[in-house]
Amino acid sequence: xxxxxxxxxxxxxxxxxxxxxxxxxxxxxxxxxxxxxxxxxxxxxxxxxxxxxxxxxxxxxxxxxxxxxxxxxxxxxxxxxxxxxxxxxxxxxxxxxxxxxxxxxxxxxxxxx
Length: 113
Description:
This protein is mainly β. The chain has a single domain (2-108), classed as Beta Barrel (Lipocalin), CATH 2.40.128. 9% of the residues lie in helices and 52% in strands. The protein has helices spanning 2-7, 9-12, and strands at residues 21-28, 34-41, 46-52, 55-62, 68-71, 78-84, 87-93, 99-108. A hairpin with a 2-residue loop joins strand 6 and strand 7. The chain is globular, with a radius of gyration of 14 Å. 21% of the residues are buried.
């Protein structure tokens, strides 16, 4: 996951600098689905790479009332990854801005082990 995250840094438009932090986190969701992510921070910008359907989706942190929400800043159809504590939900946002749940109750693995 670290190599995949490093390879996609140009797609995130984040500098490959010494202060760049990458934290891989795996989640197990309802129905046993596994989601691999890599949270990326350059000191100013937060992003997450989410492995979905055998491809990586780069998402940037957005405003949220609670937790951390990541989406596509261009505003088009995209996935949305929303975390709160050690749980997350994956949504699909269509061209009209309507969101539907793709995976829910995604629990971070390795917590408390």
